[in-house]
Hints:
Elements: H1 2-28, H2 31-42, H3 50-83, H4 93-142, H5 144-165, H6 185-197, H7 215-234, H8 236-242, H9 245-250, H10 259-263, H11 265-283, E1 290-292, E2 296-297, E3 317-318, H12 325-333, H13 336-342, H14 345-348, H15 355-369, H16 371-386, H17 391-410, H18 414-423, H19 430-439, H20 446-456, H21 460-475, H22 480-496, E4 515-516, E5 520-521, E6 525-526, E7 534-535, E8 539-540, E9 544-545, E10 549-550, E11 554-555, E12 559-560, E13 569-570, E14 574-575, E15 579-580, E16 584-585, E17 589-590, E18 594-595, E19 599-600, E20 604-605, E21 609-610, E22 614-615, E23 619-620, E24 624-625, E25 628-630, E26 634-635, E27 639-640, E28 644-645, E29 648-650, E30 654-655
Parallel strand pairs: 1-29, 2-3, 2-30, 4-7, 5-8, 6-9, 7-11, 8-12, 10-13, 11-14, 12-15, 13-17, 14-18, 15-19, 16-20, 17-21, 18-22, 19-23, 20-24, 21-25, 22-26, 23-27, 24-28, 25-29, 26-30
Helix pairs in contact: 1-3, 2-3, 3-4, 3-21, 6-15, 12-13
Amino acid sequence: xxxxxxxxxxxxxxxxxxxxxxxxxxxxxxxxxxxxxxxxxxxxxxxxxxxxxxxxxxxxxxxxxxxxxxxxxxxxxxxxxxxxxxxxxxxxxxxxxxxxxxxxxxxxxxxxxxxxxxxxxxxxxxxxxxxxxxxxxxxxxxxxxxxxxxxxxxxxxxxxxxxxxxxxxxxxxxxxxxxxxxxxxxxxxxxxxxxxxxxxxxxxxxxxxxxxxxxxxxxxxxxxxxxxxxxxxxxxxxxxxxxxxxxxxxxxxxxxxxxxxxxxxxxxxxxxxxxxxxxxxxxxxxxxxxxxxxxxxxxxxxxxxxxxxxxxxxxxxxxxxxxxxxxxxxxxxxxxxxxxxxxxxxxxxxxxxxxxxxxxxxxxxxxxxxxxxxxxxxxxxxxxxxxxxxxxxxxxxxxxxxxxxxxxxxxxxxxxxxxxxxxxxxxxxxxxxxxxxxxxxxxxxxxxxxxxxxxxxxxxxxxxxxxxxxxxxxxxxxxxxxxxxxxxxxxxxxxxxxxxxxxxxxxxxxxxxxxxxxxxxxxxxxxxxxxxxxxxxxxxxxxxxxxxxxxxxxxxxxxxxxxxxxxxxxxxxxxxxxxxxxxxxxxxxxxxxxxxxxxxxxxxxxxxxxxxxxxxxxxxxxxxxxxxxxxxxxxxxxxxxxxxxxxxxxxxxxxxx
Length: 657
């Protein structure tokens, strides 16, 4: 596994270098040639395929060099015609190569002239800067006392401001502190619900004795997961793994999809997520949702992108258990009654309802719905998927690679740093090769060391040309021995497992029966509608397309790691059937109530709720696009760390959500 990790790092580095060189070539081409190169790269299905990518780039580079040589020869021909003493003959391919070498020599001469001219400018600048430095030193000494006086005046003004802020206020009376017997009504209500429905009958008073994690701890863990994912997406190396060569050469910000992937269900979901990101950037973070006659009663958490100025048509937020930004301004102006109409904290703080009561109520709702346990299992599943039993080996190998690169980066000179900032790559020096081999306890063969010595003494243009030669060799898929071995292994595998390529089609259950204890695991299927109720029938690692669920209620039948598209749900209530890590696209929910069925790490695209009430089914880290709710009330189902875009909420009131 560690060997595969090193191989992936090597292939990713090679892919990054080819992408950078291809981007430089792409900028030099004409518009029609750029379109042709983009079309050639876009037709490559596998983003890890470097052979076909190299073929496209080498083909267009050769055409570009031929055109450059022809233009140079035309210029020389014009000069000869003006002189009238020589005549030009037809040039062969050998002459074109000589012209290419001459072009590189001219570029070297021009670069030398630029460097010497730049050094002379620096010398002149230093010469003229010396008297200016002495003059500025005298001015600073003359104005030092004035600056000290100004600093003292500013410090006095800031001290007065701080004194005004921290003035002591005197009041005739003050509310008594709440004792244990004077707990708020919300706290007592949640305590009562915990005793009857909570885990092991534990109440809020016995939280310390309960070993189950609190919601605040899980919420902090979810926030850390989201921040870690966002940071990984922004890392420079993430672009190489996620993007195709088409994206790297064209310098695209978002990864594109291959021709076949665009037509698949997973591709449709990815395109929906890309559309969500584009809308987020285009709107500048503004809310693009629409609400009509969908009030929110006693919401526990604010919406992900709640509009303060325009909340929708007849869709107010009533008695919210959190502070709104505009309410704080109203409270400062003295309009407390108007602020309390939409936010309870302004009015009920004196009665004992605090942010702790709000957290207690939210914890109770999530505990009763079973979301806390599902979130815990989802986080354990993520850990198992990321590392399993090889965490220590992978972490150690990864840290060694990162440390070696960091140490190498510290030894870069100014020219190498500039090349890294401008181009994203650079050539190593001879001592850096030796340092890398010493740190990794590697010994190079003598012939290879001699080649490195010769390579390090070559000019940059020659080394870059040799790099293109290596890319051309990759495009020819050389050496052939490796390709022969791979083909031989593939043929032996097909002969050893002849029936592995065939997939068994999922059989339809008879209409009217009940499926009990029938889990579906590792069985992708398509065009297989579900028409029977299901009890204890989870769907695990089974992606599906064009498989609607009609008249098929489900109890204790979760969806885990099973993407679906398109998959409409019609007249199929869900009870205790959460969706975990199962993205869905084009999956409208029609006349399908959700009860105790949370969505955890489950993106949705083009999946509206129509006449489908939701009870105790929160959405946790489950972004939605082109969805919403129509005539679908919601009770006790808050959206936690869940963003929605282009979502319409029509005649869909929500309570405690």
